[in-house]
Amino acid sequence: MSLAQEAQRADSDTAFSNIPIIDLKDATDVSPAKQVALAKEIRDACVNVGFFYVKNHGIPESTIDTAVERMKQYFSLPQEVKMEHEITKTPNFKGYSAVLSSNNDPNGAGDMHEGFEFGFEPIHPPAAPALVDGATTQEKGGVMAGANAWPREEHAPGFREGVLGYYHAAVALGRLLFPLFALALDLPANFFDDMTKNSAALMRVLHYPPQTGPVDDRVLGIGAHTDWECFTILWQEPKIQALQVLNTDKQWIDAPPIEGTLVINLGDQFARWTNDVFKSTVHRAINRSGVRRYSIPLFFGTDYDVRLEPIASCVSEERPPRYEVVTAGEYVKSRLKATYGH
Fold it and tell me: Cα separation of 226 and 23, whole Å?
């Protein structure tokens, strides 16, 4: 069965009612049989759900704990300090976003969270920027080019180093996953290598204030949306249920935090690349726990100059191309403008 036919069947199959858990213990095993078996699990999750948990992901708990501690300290700063690097002041949308400043659901009235967004940079920058194909990573970003906008060290000591430590660990996990996604699409394991050279990965640290009592359903922690990049690696606050995923029967399925796991969900870039064979599934977060909630998504995408053209095996007479072709950078920036320009 071709990928396009498999996706057609999945579109009409029974809606999912749970999120699968995939063990990555064999992710670096060179045995072809183990690689194929793992890729098949990932393929089933991507075609049928668009979400899965991963365990044995390789990121040390100490790295996560440090990032969480530093972001909690940052979000406790006075509002005027955080607003010094407000996200719409930068052309590449890096920096701080206040509560209700974003609106992921066009039918919503704002997202009940605050965040801080940043992209790739070394934890210890070299004296001169590294060149990639004759240009710096920031220059290669095209329409998304530009530096991160960090708070001053005296205001948030250790924040930059703490969250960048987790960022680089999550990027390493993303680079481990890309060959498995390629194998899941019946492509060579290195298929995405030339399209992901410059670490087009954005990370957000997020703080959700509690919502209790009567709540306007147009204001949620984050409204119903799809993510924009290839896939997201999500750390969730333990023991607090907030994330929900929409199945094809329009039912919201809980995706609670599970100890020792991270959540992986596909985004629009993969949906465009695969002509919706891989699902970019609608999801939302509602924090009605009565306590503060924190999360850290890393959005791992293709390099911004890559054109999002459908893979040949994902197109058929019954499944013609569904999207206009744009570059990854153009697509991400258009979504950022829509989200923060409401």
Answer: 25
For 98, other C-beta atoms within 10 Å of its C-beta total 15
Dist CA 310 CA 321 (whole Å): 7
CA 299 to chain centre: 3
Residues with Cβ within 8 Å of 243's Cβ and at least 6 positions away in sequence, in order, are 234, 236, 254, 255, 256, 263, 283, 284, 285
Instruction: Please write the tens of the pLDDT for every residue from 181-235.
Output: 999 999 999 999 999 887 678 999 999 988 765 555 645 677 888 998 999 999 9
Residue from 56, 65, 50, 64 nearest 20 by CA:
50
99 vs 195, higher pLDDT: 195
Question: Six-digit token pair at 101?
Answer: 């400043």
Q: Coil, strand, or helix at residue 144?
A: helix
**DSSP SS3 for 176:** helix
Which residue shows structure tokens 């407000």? 86
Residue whose C-alpha is closest to residue 174's, from 155, 160, 195: 195
Alpha helix (H) residue ranges in the chain: 3-12, 32-48, 61-75, 79-82, 137-140, 159-184, 268-273, 328-340
Residues 309-325: b if buried by 16+ CB within 10 A, e if exposed? ebbeebbeeebeeeeee
Tell me, which fold does domain 3-236+252-340 have in CATH?
Jelly Rolls (2.60.120)
